[in-house]
Amino acid sequence: MYRKTATTVPVTARQQQAESLSLSVVIDWIKKHLFNDILNSLITLSIIIILISFIPYALDWLIISAVFTGETRADCTPNKACWIPIIQYMEYYIYGPYPDDQKWRVDVGYILGGLAFPLLFTRRIPKKIVLTYVFLLPVALWMLLKGGGLLTEMPSSAFGGIMLTFFLGAIAMCLSMPVAILLALGRQSKLPIIRWICVGYIETIRAVPILTFLIMASLMLQIFLPDGMEIEKLLRVLFVLVSVSAAYKAEIIRGGIQAIPKGQAEAAYALGAGYWTTMVYVIMPQALRNSVPALITNFIGLFKETTLVAIVGILELVGVVRASFENAEWIGFHVEGLVLVSFFFFTVCYSIALYGGYLERGLKKNKQ
Amino acid sequence: MSDNTMISLMNVNKWYGDYHALRDINMEVKSGEKIVICGPSGSGKSTLIRCVNNLEQHNEGRIHVCGVELNEDLKGLEEIRQKAGMVFQSFNLFPHLSVLDNCTFGLRRALKVDETTANKIAMDLLARVKIADQAKKFPGQLSGGQQQRVAIARALSMSPQVMLFDEPTSALDPEMIAEVLDVMRELAKEGMTMICVTHEMGFAKEVADRIIFMEEGSIIEESNPDVFFNNPQTKRAENFLQQILSH
After folding, report:
1. Engineered SS bond to B129: which of A79, A177, A265, B149, CB 3.0-4.6 Å?
2. CA closest to B108 among chain A residues
3. pTM reported for the whole predicted model
4. What is the DSSP letter of B17?
5. Which residues of B, range 178-237, sit inside 8 Å of A by Cβ?
6. Buried b / exposed e across A74-110, counting CB within 10 Å, b at 16+?
């Protein structure tokens, strides 16, 4: 709330607000918003009671009585979290079964992917450079991690853990966007064949569960291909992730396009602009702005959907965590593993959500 | 067709489904002429003007613009459209671009003029419509009258040979109509060929060489302003004038 108003009030007013944010203001706020009448006070109190009775136990289990150091199962306290296996397996979670002498490639991959974030968050760098970076990222990641050419080629089985989740997520997010834009435009095309193909594609993909496609891609595809021809398993899974999320994104973007008045395209055409010029410079910038909230939700969904590839035997983060707790020494400690997985996904997905909020605030400034 | 004919329509018909929107339209506009098209709403005025730069396609008849016939297998439609500047009732400025970028859009994206040159041309035009000081603002920050003036500057940026105005003042608050009409008067004085769909009869009287009155998709009357306002040839034009001038 405070943040929202801050962008619209002049600097001096903002300073005053900041200065007066003292204890009395906080107390006033609490009185006004949490204890303004009997019902509200009761609700506030009961929530406080619930939190008080719950949080200390959770903190105790998670941290205070939890065990962080030790070697074996015997070092753990019963009924408290035991982080020993997590710490022992951390490197396996981060790099998967990637060979030790090649781990620098994964590190470079993380850095390349991580760089995308500050790049997306600054306005100083021209948009063209940012877009080029984002579109080249999947290619770079594939060449770096998969290898071939200069680098040793890695089999799909070398991929795993956070590194694989990140690899699948980053590539699928970057590639699904352009595909979705083309699908959305195709769906509105004046040429019937293109329109039918796009509608058919989108409706089919939307109507079938993604798990089905993943299993089909890993088991059935081989049957249809000629003998001796084999497509990398990772590539097949990526293909499914990109195709499926592109269909959903296409529908989101179509909604964004339809919200734009017809006069926008007409004005561009009247200036002598062609179809593609009009789409790229007039329609898409506006359509994508309209679609930001829904697209961000889709990106978050896509990132979490990468966990589904575990079903076809590819061990992304959830997969490696489960695998590590099949070790007889640590059976029964999988709850800690799930806490770790939740923490990882929350961090990444909440970052994406923050980026969405940032985008929306930036766009609001230009709009009335 | 004489040499200085810029636009000609011959027996043009258009249907929207069963609805006959334009009926046997014949019309000719010479270079430098100012035409005002008026008539009740739904009479096909906008459809007519939109057919001239192919935002709508006619079903029958022939339309020539600057010596080129508009038809389905026309190559280089973009170039025809560059010769005819269009100003819309609802301005249709690009809300995500600044005023300056709106005016350089056609130059940079359609004509591939470099940014510096395009900016210079656009700034000159913005000065001409007296709004150069707002160049960095976004359309949403301007008043309706200012937006429409920007839209005129944007259309002029392509150095069109003819300007088409589709009810340019109908979406404006009354106090903003004058500033837009002033700009249009200036343009007329400079000798621009203009076709205006408008209800501004004062403007029509003053600027138009010819007035075209339409009803139910047909041209009912075509005469010079003197005759049209003082001695309309048809009963329907007379009724229309009475209604529009009485308030």
Report:
1. B149
2. A273
3. 0.84
4. T
5. none
6. eebeeeebbbbbbeebeebbbbbbbeeeeeebbeebb
